[in-house]
Amino acid sequence: MFIGADLPEELQSKIATLSKRLEFLDGKFVEPQNLHVNLKFLGEVDESQLEAIKNALMSIQDSFEPFNIKIKELGSFPSMNYINVVWLGIESGEMEAIASLLDQKLVLVGFAADHKELKLHLTLCRVKSDRNLDKFRDLYKELQSIEVGTFQVDQIHLFKSTLTPSGPVYEKVFTVRLGGS
């Protein structure tokens, strides 16, 4: 399970078009309908933990009003020299604040703290081999400062991820509306 925000279809479509330009990479591309901003990865969750997760989500909904986030910048993890993941960056102080607050609240109920620096992003592709990475690095020079668009986040979701032979299927288990409405 994980906590995150999903994207409107318009941006899913724009990102799918960008992903087509990267199809030369040897990797597994994220399906447009599965694109999301991950705020907190929870891993396997026991049924007994669900109530605590829901309570943590409900405790933040009144603290944040709906806000806009910007999708911009192409990058890779862990670096451009060793590429495992190709991503688009997310610019949003509010999203970072929500992620930090959720992390604090969930640590109190037994989940591991996120110790690495938070880099909000949308995963485009998980790279399987170094085939055509030089071609990607060349295209990166053109696309690194790309601005894909802006959208409003007014809901945060608890997602369940089920792995299938054709890829993961995400199901919204619980949703909070920001601003408490």
Polypeptide structure, described:
This protein has a 5-stranded antiparallel beta sheet, sandwiched between helices. It is about 30% helix and about 40% strand. Strand 8 (about 155-165) and strand 9 form a beta hairpin. It is globular. It contains 4 helices and 9 strands, in the order E-H-E-E-H-E-E-H-E-H-E-E-E. The protein has one domain (about 1-180): Cyclic Phosphodiesterase, Chain: A (Alpha-Beta Complex), CATH 3.90.1140.10. The protein is α+β, with helices and mostly antiparallel strands and about 180 residues long.
CATH architecture: Alpha-Beta Complex
Assign the CATH class. Alpha Beta
What would you give as the CATH superfamily? Cyclic phosphodiesterase
Rg on CA atoms, Å:
17 Å
Number of helices: 4
Search tags:
181 residues; 4 helices; Cyclic Phosphodiesterase, Chain: A; alpha+beta
Short summary:
The protein has 181 residues and is of the alpha+beta class. The protein has 4 helices and 9 strands.
Q: Any chance you could write out the topology, listing elements then pairs?
A:
Blueprint: E1 2-6, H1 9-20, E2 27-29, E3 36-41, H2 50-61, E4 67-78, E5 83-91, H3 93-107, E6 121-127, H4 133-143, E7 147-153, E8 155-164, E9 167-177
Antiparallel strand pairs: 1-3, 1-8, 2-6, 4-5, 4-7, 5-6, 8-9
